[in-house]
């Protein structure tokens, strides 16, 4: 018989921390978002009273917030497919037998992942600056830090950091495919392209789904890059991404409104990731 | 072979894309301030790395070294402890049947989808209620929790720890906890390394939590420190070389860790993705 006590010993430490630093904060944010601060008179003491859905009403009427949501959605719709497409192509090439020096390339592509987002953004911020950049031919023709281009300049930073990571996940999934599958394909006369398209890609679909979900979450969380780019470009406002909005609202400070922003954001992330999962799972069942 | 040439060309171009910025950072950090803006950006001028490093480590009473130390404790400590906790929980979810098991797993899995940034603000509010913001613990404790690690540990324990082995250990009179530490954890070792690395990178990259919690410069992790210097570059241009040199120094430990641990993380990465 396995003692209940030992199971508890395994589960409780993580469980308690999860409760304290995941579930309680979520609950607290929801509670906070339902309250508002009122003052009696202009200089009277402030106190928190129940405000119902008032904060949410303000979230929905907040133009800059929805602009920022639109901005990260646009960012995600363009950046995520480019990043994952590149990761898939590189993983397939590494797996194809066409490439020599696989170990080297695998590492070379993965190195940027070791660079923290903030540091990567600082580095690229310098690389984009017209006076310091090694690519002055590019930066003098296009101002990568201008209002039109800065979003895509950031997309490049995110892509640079995460392609190698995503490539490795897909590549590891490719390595797990049993060799017999390829031999069967060869006997049937399938070439490299055909094998990649009809066998490899479907087999690594779960890995692609996983990386997509992580990328969606990552996109909605965009914070370090825009926060750093504010020092390089005046085009990045304090409400440039939803997370920046939360941060600047909380430092005003209006915690109740900021809590409502967080709840909306967490819900949006949840719904988007879940919808994507459901959508792809249904496709897979057929 | 045309296909081979094309494949190698793609690989070569991508290598440039991924490595040139790091090369630039390395070369830049070896230059004096004057050379940095006046010499070829991608090649060395007078070798000034030693002076830059010494300036970096002496600036404001060596606060940069302090930040590095903080980062090691925040990330290394949180990743080590967090991996252990996640592994134990994932292992129990995989190997024992107990009431509430599925519920626990579902809730933890849902936790994977909660953006860390959505948690940072309520955490700040709770810690400020307890008057515990701007402390080491306000950043360290929340960093211990790693739901994705639990998920990976469960998958990996299911695949790599056979039930028969646990039965045999029980017959030998070994307690569950002892079996975990002496037998199961060894079988799960590649997964543990993977969980550790994922966790390490997640904490290392977590910017909002320290940004929101910490005011005291002495408690900053290195990323927040570099960020705060970078925001002052316009007023204090001499900080630019320190930011660059500091950026280089800050990425070396992780690159080394990846190089040393790479044979472990590859096998583990796949197991998380396949099923």
How would you sum up this structure, described in words?
- The complex is a heterodimer of chains A (286) and B (275).
- Helix content of chain A is 72%, strand content 3%.
- The mean pLDDT of chain A is 89.
- Chain A is mostly helical and 286 residues long.
- In chain A, helix 2 crosses helix 13, helix 3 (63-95) runs antiparallel to helix 10 (205-220) and helix 10 (205-220) runs antiparallel to helix 13.
- In chain A, a hairpin with a 6-residue loop joins strand 1 (35-39) and strand 2 (46-50).
- Chain A is globular.
- Chain A has helices at 4-33, 54-61, 63-95, 102-110, 117-128, 136-141, 150-175, 179-187, 192-203, 205-220, 224-229, 242-250, 255-285, and strands spanning 35-39, 46-50.
- By secondary structure, chain B is an all-alpha fold.
- Chain B is 79% helix and 0% strand.
- Chain B has helices at 2-29, 33-38, 49-95, 101-113, 116-129, 136-140, 147-160, 163-171, 176-187, 189-205, 208-213, 222-231, 239-274.
- In chain B, helix 3 (49-95) packs parallel to helix 13 (239-274), helix 10 runs antiparallel to helix 13 and helix 12 packs across helix 13 (239-274).
- The longest helix of chain B is centred in the N-terminal third of the chain and has 47 residues, at 49-95.
- Chain B is globular.
Give the topology, please.
The complex is a heterodimer of chains A (286) and B (275).
Chain A: H1 4-33, E1 35-39, E2 46-50, H2 54-61, H3 63-95, H4 102-110, H5 117-128, H6 136-141, H7 150-175, H8 179-187, H9 192-203, H10 205-220, H11 224-229, H12 242-250, H13 255-285
Antiparallel strand pairs in A: 1-2
Helix pairs in contact in A: 1-13, 2-13, 3-7, 3-10, 4-7, 5-7, 10-13, 12-13
Chain B: H1 2-29, H2 33-38, H3 49-95, H4 101-113, H5 116-129, H6 136-140, H7 147-160, H8 163-171, H9 176-187, H10 189-205, H11 208-213, H12 222-231, H13 239-274
Helix pairs in contact in B: 1-13, 3-7, 3-10, 3-13, 4-7, 7-10, 10-13, 12-13
């Amino acid at each position: 018989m396995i003692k209940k006590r030992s199971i508890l010993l395994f589960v409780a430490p993580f469980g308690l921390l999860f409760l304290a630093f995941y579930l309680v904060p979520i609950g607290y944010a929801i509670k906070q978002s339902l309250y508002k601060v009122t003052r009696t008179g202009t200089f009277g003491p402030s106190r928190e009273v129940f405000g119902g859905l008032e904060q949410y009403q303000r979230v929905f009427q907040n133009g800059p917030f929805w602009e920022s949501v639109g901005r990260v959605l646009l960012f995600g719709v363009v950046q995520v497919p480019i990043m994952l497409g590149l990761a898939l192509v590189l993983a397939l090439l590494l797996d194809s037998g066409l490439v020599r020096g696989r170990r080297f390339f695998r590492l070379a592509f993965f190195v940027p992942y070791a660079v923290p987002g903030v540091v990567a953004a600082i580095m690229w911020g310098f690389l984009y600056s017209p006076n310091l950049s090694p690519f002055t031919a590019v930066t003098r023709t296009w101002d990568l830090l201008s209002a039109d281009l800065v979003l895509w300049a950031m997309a490049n930073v995110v892509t640079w950091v995460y392609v190698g990571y995503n490539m490795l996940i897909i590549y590891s999934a490719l390595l797990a495919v049993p060799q017999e599958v390829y031999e069967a394909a060869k006997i049937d006369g399938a070439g490299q392209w055909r094998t990649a398209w009809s066998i490899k890609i479907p087999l690594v679909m779960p890995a692609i789904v996983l990386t997509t979900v992580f990328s969606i979450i990552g996109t909605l969380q965009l914070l370090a890059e825009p926060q750093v780019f504010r020092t390089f470009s005046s085009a990045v406002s304090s409400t440039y991404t939803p997370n920046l909005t939360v941060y600047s609202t909380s430092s005003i400070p209006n915690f109740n409104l900021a809590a409502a922003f967080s709840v909306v954001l967490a819900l949006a992330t949840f719904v988007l990731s879940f919808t994507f999962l459901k959508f792809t799972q249904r496709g897979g069942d057929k | 072979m045309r296909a081979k040439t094309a494949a190698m060309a793609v690989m070569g171009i991508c290598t440039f894309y991924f490595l040139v910025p790091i090369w630039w950072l390395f070369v830049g950090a070896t230059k004096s301030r004057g050379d940095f803006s006046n010499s070829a950006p991608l090649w060395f001028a007078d070798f000034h790395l030693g002076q830059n490093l010494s300036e970096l480590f002496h600036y404001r009473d060596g606060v940069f070294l302090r930040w590095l130390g903080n980062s090691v404790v925040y990330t290394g400590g949180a990743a080590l402890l967090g991996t252990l906790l996640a592994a134990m929980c994932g292992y129990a979810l995989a190997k024992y049947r107990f009431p509430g098991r599925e519920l626990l797993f579902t809730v933890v899995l849902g936790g994977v989808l909660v953006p860390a940034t959505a948690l940072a603000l309520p955490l700040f509010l709770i810690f400020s209620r307890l008057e515990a913001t701007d402390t080491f613990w306000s950043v360290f404790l929340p960093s211990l929790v790693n739901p994705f690690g639990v998920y990976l540990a469960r998958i990996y324990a299911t695949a790599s720890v056979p039930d028969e082995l646990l039965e045999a250990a029980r017959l030998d009179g070994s307690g569950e906890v002892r079996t975990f530490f002496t037998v199961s954890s060894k079988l799960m070792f590649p997964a543990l390394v993977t969980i550790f690395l994922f966790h390490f990178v997640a904490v290392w990259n977590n910017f909002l939590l320290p940004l929101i919690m910490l005011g005291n410069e002495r408690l900053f992790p290195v990323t927040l420190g570099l960020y705060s210097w970078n925001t002052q570059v316009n007023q204090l241009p001499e900080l630019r070389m320190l930011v660059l040199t500091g950026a280089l120094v800050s990425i070396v430990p992780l690159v080394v860790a990846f190089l040393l641990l790479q044979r472990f993380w590859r096998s583990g990465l796949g197991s998380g993705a396949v099923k």
